[in-house]
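Backbones bend. We report:
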Amino acid sequence: MRLVIQRVTKAVVKVGNKQAGKIDKGLLILVGVGKEDTRAQAEALAEKLSKLRVMADGKGKMNLSVSEAKGEFLVVSQFTLYADTSGGNRPSFIKAAEPALAKEIYEHFLAKLKENGVNVATGSFGDYMNISAELDGPVTIILES
C-alpha cells in the first residue's frame, strides 16, 4: 500500500456536485493498493497513521497525533499512486490491485482507522472525484508497506 498524507486545515471531496466527504483540521490521505497488498499491511498502516505525530502542538512543533490534536481523517482511494512511467510517457497501472481486491483492502483500512476513535470521512471508491484542500505547513509524508 502507498499512502500520501497531507496535513490540512480543511479538505472536501466531491463526486459531481455532491459532497462525499469533508473534514476540518486533520489529514488528507490518498490510498493506493497494489497487487501484492494484504489486509495485514492495511492494519499496520492504519496503526502507524493513528499514532503518527505530525500535528502541531501549542508551540507549532509536529508533536501530536490526529486524535491528540482533535483532528479528522479524509481518506480517498487513488490507484494512480501505482503509476509506472519507466516504459514511456503514458503511465501503466499494472502494479495496482484489481478493483475488487483494492476495495476490500481499502475498506479494511478504513475500518481499522475508525477503531481508533477518530472521525473518518471518505471519498467514493472508484468514482471520479474533485478534491479541494487547504494544506497546512505544508506537511506531506509518504508511507508504504
Summary: The chain has one domain: 2-137. The chain is about 20% helix and 40% strand.
